[in-house]
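Example record for the data management plan.
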Amino acid sequence: MTVRSETPTTATEPPYPPAAPTETEVAGAGSAVERTDHRDHHPLPWDLPAEQWRLATAGGAFLLSFVVALTLMYGRRHPMFGEGSIGEYSALIAALSTAITFVVWFAWAVRGPAQRWRRRMALFLRILEYVGLTLTHAAVAMLALSGTFWILSQAFRELTLDGFAGAFIVAVGSAVTSYLVVGSALSTNTRHLSQLLAVFVASGALSSMLTASDPLWWQDHFSSLGAASDLSGLTFNFTLLLGGLVIITLSGYLTHDLAVWAELARERPYKVTVMRIAFLVEGVLLAALAFLSVDRFFYTHNVVAYAMVAVFLAMAAGVPVLFPTLSRPFSLVCALTLTALVVGLVAYLGVGYLNLTAFEVLTVAGIFTWLILLVATVESASEHRRSHPAALGHDPVVDPDDDRLP
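Corresponding structural encoding:
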């Protein structure tokens, strides 16, 4: 008897090792990855990778900023911070460079098929979106560079540089901010906007505090910063105005994502509309505070401020009621947020443990923490519904790139 020692070959086992991918195939795979990373916007010009465009944009910003800065700074020596300083020129030129860069690349990004709903927004809201986001990115660049050069001025005391060296440093700052803003413009989504809003408001408020002419402003309230007629007051009110515009823009992004989840979860559309209206009101009220200084419009200012808190409390209490299947952990977050605000109010009005400024800090921190977690929750819930249709008990027919606004 002959025993065959051959190992049977399975049907799925290839008779020979697969050939190594060619350079063309590898390059094609890289392009596919790049397209996947940016699938939500229009293909980049000449189908080049995004990183090449970031570097090219940064290079262009460097050259133009260097020429402008050298023209303005040549023939003099400049300190690191203060009037006529390298920091001042860097902040202003970088803000302009950032604004131009964002407008160009954001306009390109919204041409993508997944952004149809943004192109169908009312013209007024689209203008607010462009203006608000452009100015916010420019302001963040200005605040970041101003803070950087203030720190450098403390490290290199009494240092001055000639116009050529100063222009080079200014150009580097513009190149860095332009490089970063390209990625921001191409990846603008709900989560990105919520984080940008939090960073901008925190930076603007901190800048206003540091430049306040009254070092004891905190013994009164935050609104006293906006009542000042100096740079501190201008910064504070500008932060409120842009913050309101960004919240109005964010309302469209967030409720679009919420509408996609609501249709998958078979929630009624009016619930999403209620949330959109609440966010719009919150944004309008915040922007209105920029024009209602507490020293000139005391009662109106307080009414608007209390109305903002009331709208937020209604949203925090309403999300678990309107969307009970959205997320149980987030319902707990809503309850904890409301509890923290109530405890803070008692500590302020009841026992006098907190002053008004401390209560305002607690309230603002609670609002932005809640907002960022809401955005993350809606995004996660929507992705879960899309990837687990069987959990719905039916096959949902929904376009994740739905161009409808609630």
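Summary line stored alongside the record: The CA atoms of residues 40 and 114 lie 5 Å apart.
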